[in-house]
Amino acid sequence: MFGIKEIKDTSITEEDERIWLASYKKEGKEAKFRLKLNIKEPEDGFPLSFSKGSFYAEKDSDSEILLRDIANALEAKGKYQSDKEIDSLEFDNGSFDSNSEGDWIATKVFVADGEGEFYLNINPVLGLGEISIKDSEYGDIVMSVLSKIL
Predict the structure, then answer these.
(1) 66: how many CB neighbours lie within 10 A of its CB?
(2) How many CB atoms are located within 10 Å of the residue 150 CB?
(3) Fewer CB within 10 Å, N or C, the chain?
(4) 3-state helix, strand, coil in the chain (%, to 5)
(5) 150 close to 69: Cβ distance less than 8 angstroms
(6) CB atoms within 10 A of CB 133
(7) Rounded to the nearest 10 degrees, what angle do helices 64-73 and 139-146 cross at?
């Protein structure tokens, strides 16, 4: 789990988008990144909506521990450390309407042209987010992409 705080940044958001500053503190290190999601309501009778999102790199972020913990959660086999090759990473996602009365925004994220998948869940009320495994076969693909931005 990582912490999130919603921020307003009209230079990169549109009407149906929300952006959060995310942070992960552990072992004396702090990783920071921004997360933007396009929030669309599922159409009647269909429990899923498709949209876009982005990760944005933050300066002064130490992501060593975050990447290690995400790699463990995704059952990635390689070793990953932040390469910070890019400033932003756009992704496609599907948002689930699994509990319309709950506070969680549950999404399945697709990266690397759909070759990698993972779950990204956000709870704006509790100020929490999490990245979790979709299938272990995607772990190394997802980590190779995330290590370029986190």
Answers:
(1) 25
(2) 26
(3) N
(4) 15, 45, 40
(5) no
(6) 17
(7) 160
Judge whether residue 27 has pLDDT over 60: yes
β partners of residue 119? 108, 132
Residue 3: both structure tokens together = 């912490």
Domain that holds residue 13: 2-146
Q: Does the structure show a pLDDT above 60 at 147?
A: yes
- Confidence (pTM): 0.87
Quote the pLDDT of residue 38.
87
In Å, how far from its chain's centre is CA 123? 12
pLDDT band at 11; cut points 50, 70, 90: low
Distance CA 17, CA 137 (A): 30
Over residues 74-102, the mean pLDDT reads 81
